[in-house]
């Protein structure tokens, strides 16, 4: 029962921090310092990634109609007027092409160098610096954007080139833990003239193949021989992350319609300093 309660807490933290641009890695590192799961290091390494599948299912359910590329209803851009091709939504297919293009940089580096990068950069120094640097970036970019109008106000206006550039920013998050995948892609999108709402939506959609791919990679490396204890912890963590993510995503989409991202920038700076001081003096 104690381990289930721990898994619930990890799921809550994952569900909140995965979508807010404040770094789930930074929070997980701090949480693990105070509350450790009674599992092997190999399982915990896998758990940190695969728990994100719960968070991803929240995106799939909330935005299903916005990205599912098949169906005759609400299809203003069918591939053909009649027949089976009339069920193909051209605008959604094009959106998925952009999403997959944006995934290329992180996917290539992740497959080739995942373990090496984790060994080199998965430490509190990197996480702290990444939290602070991207926190400052949020503040500076939002101050700049306060005097400029966004050029891109819909997902359809994101070009292949823009999608690839956003993917490069996502690559930064793949290399340096603490950057925050959502934080990096949102910062990149804002720099490229994408509106806050569209930047957040594209970040959500971009997470689907990225997290499914990363989770599959981790599960394959770990193996499928879960003990009952491990299976329960993983399932509980994923379910809680899913439920919490539903509320957090809705909150974020409502919040950014009236506010900017600077509050998250300041939070990141404070958290980065806290993480750094904690490990220097108490870790």
Automatic annotation (TrEMBL):
It is a multi-pass membrane protein. Pfam families: BacA (PF02673). GO terms for biological process: cell wall organization; peptidoglycan biosynthetic process; regulation of cell shape; response to antibiotic. Catalyzes the dephosphorylation of undecaprenyl diphosphate (UPP). Confers resistance to bacitracin. The gene is uppP. The keyword Cell wall biogenesis/degradation applies. GO terms for cellular component: plasma membrane. This is Undecaprenyl-diphosphatase. InterPro entries: UppP (IPR003824). It is found in: Cell membrane. It catalyses: di-trans,octa-cis-undecaprenyl diphosphate + H2O = di-trans,octa-cis-undecaprenyl phosphate + phosphate + H(+). Keywords: Antibiotic resistance, Cell membrane, Cell shape, Cell wall biogenesis/degradation, Hydrolase, Membrane, Peptidoglycan synthesis, Transmembrane, Transmembrane helix. Belongs to the UppP family. The chain crosses the membrane at residues 7-31, 43-64, 93-113, 119-141, 162-179, 199-220, 232-253, 265-282. It is an enzyme of class 3 (hydrolase). It comes from the Bacteria. Bacitracin is thought to be involved in the inhibition of peptidoglycan synthesis by sequestering undecaprenyl diphosphate, thereby reducing the pool of lipid carrier available. The keyword Repressor does not apply. Its EC number is 3.6.1.27. GO terms for molecular function: undecaprenyl-diphosphatase activity.
């Amino acid at each position: 029962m104690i381990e289930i309660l721990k898994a619930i807490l990890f799921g809550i933290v994952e569900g909140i921090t995965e979508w807010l641009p404040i770094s789930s890695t930074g929070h997980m590192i701090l949480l693990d310092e105070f509350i450790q799961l009674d599992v092997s290091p190999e399982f915990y390494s896998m758990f940190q990634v695969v728990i994100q599948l719960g968070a991803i299912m929240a995106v799939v359910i909330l935005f299903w109609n916005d990205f599912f590329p098949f169906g005759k209803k609400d299809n203003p851009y069918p591939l053909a007027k009649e027949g089976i091709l009339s069920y193909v939504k051209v605008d959604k297919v094009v959106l998925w092409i952009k999403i997959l293009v944006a995934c290329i940089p992180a996917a290539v580096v992740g497959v080739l160098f995942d373990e090496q990068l984790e060994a080199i950069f998965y430490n509190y120094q990197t996480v702290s610096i990444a939290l602070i640097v991207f926190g400052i970036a949020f503040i500076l970019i939002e101050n700049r954007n306060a005097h400029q109008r966004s050029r891109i106000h819909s997902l359809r206006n994101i070009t292949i080139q823009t999608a690839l550039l956003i993917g490069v920013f996502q690559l930064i998050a793949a290399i340096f833990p603490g950057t925050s995948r959502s934080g990096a892609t949102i910062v990149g999108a804002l720099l490229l003239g994408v509106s806050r709402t569209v930047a957040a939506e594209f970040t959500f959609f971009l997470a689907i193949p990225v997290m499914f791919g990363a989770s599959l990679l981790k599960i394959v490396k770990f193996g499928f021989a879960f003990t009952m204890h491990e299976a329960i912890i993983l399932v509980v963590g994923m379910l809680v992350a899913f439920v919490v993510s539903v509320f957090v995503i809705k909150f974020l989409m409502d919040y950014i319609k009236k506010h900017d991202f600077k509050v998250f920038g300041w939070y990141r700076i404070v958290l980065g300093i806290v993480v750094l001081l904690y490990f220097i003096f108490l870790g």
